[in-house]
C-alpha cells in the first residue's frame, strides 16, 4: 500500500513539475521593439510577464523628445501565449479616435518578430531581448 501511495505521489509531483515548466514561455521577459511603418520607425519597450493569474503584457512607447506626436494612451487586453508566441490587443487613443492593433509576436532566442495588424493593414515588428 505504501509503495502504491509513494508511486502515485511521485507521479503527481512529476506531472506538476512538467506542467509548471510548460507555463514558462521564451517570450516572457523584457524586449526592445521597433515597429516599421510608412511614417517611420517607432520604438517601444515590451514586457511579457507570467504569474498566478496568467500572462500579462505592458508596452511603453519611446517617443523622441522632438517628436510632433505625443505619446498615446493605450489599453492592452486579450493576452494569450501559445508556445513562444504571444498575442494581444492594444487599443490606442488617437486624435482621430480609438485604433485597435492586434499583435502576434514570436520569440526565437533573444529575437522577437511578428506583426501588429489593424484595419489599415499590418506593420512588421522586430525586437531584441532587453539587457
Short characterization:
The chain contains 1 helix and 8 strands; from the N terminus they run αββββββββ. By secondary structure, the chain is an alpha+beta fold.
Descriptive tags:
131 residues, alpha+beta, Lipocalin, eight-stranded antiparallel beta sheet
Report on the architecture of this protein.
There is one protein chain. It contains one helix and eight strands, in the order H-E-E-E-E-E-E-E-E. The protein is an alpha+beta fold and 131 residues long. It has one domain (26-129): Lipocalin. An eight-stranded antiparallel beta sheet has the order 3-2-1-8-7-6-5-4, with no helix packed on it. The N and C termini lie far apart (52 Å). 15% of the residues are buried.
| Percent of residues in β-strands | over 45%
- What is the architecture at the second tier of CATH? Beta Barrel
Which strand order does the major sheet show?
3-2-1-8-7-6-5-4
| Low-pLDDT regions | 4-22
Q: Give me the number of helical elements.
A: 1
Indicate the structural class: alpha+beta
Query: Can you identify the CATH class?
Result: Mainly Beta
- Using the alpha-carbon principal axes, give the shape: globular
Q: What is the straight-line distance between the termini? A: 52 Å
The Cα radius of gyration reads: 19 Å
Remind me, CATH topology? Lipocalin
- Estimate the mean pLDDT confidence: 83
Total beta strand runs:
8
Helix percent reads 10-25%
* Largest β-sheet summary: 8 strands, antiparallel
Amino acid at each position: 500500500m505504501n509503495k502504491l501511495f509513494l508511486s502515485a505521489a511521485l507521479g503527481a509531483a512529476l506531472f506538476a513539475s512538467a506542467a509548471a515548466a510548460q507555463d514558462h514561455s521564451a517570450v516572457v521577459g523584457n524586449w526592445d521593439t521597433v515597429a516599421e511603418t510608412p511614417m517611420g520607425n517607432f520604438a517601444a519597450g515590451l514586457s511579457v510577464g507570467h504569474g498566478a493569474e496568467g500572462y500579462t503584457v505592458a508596452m511603453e512607447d519611446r517617443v523622441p523628445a522632438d517628436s510632433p506626436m505625443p505619446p498615446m494612451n493605450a489599453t492592452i487586453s486579450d493576452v494569450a501565449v501559445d508556445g513562444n508566441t504571444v498575442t494581444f490587443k492594444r487599443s490606442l487613443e488617437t486624435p482621430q479616435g480609438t485604433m485597435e492593433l492586434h499583435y502576434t509576436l514570436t520569440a526565437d532566442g533573444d529575437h522577437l518578430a511578428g506583426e501588429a495588424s489593424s484595419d489599415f493593414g499590418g506593420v512588421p515588428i522586430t525586437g531584441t531581448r532587453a539587457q
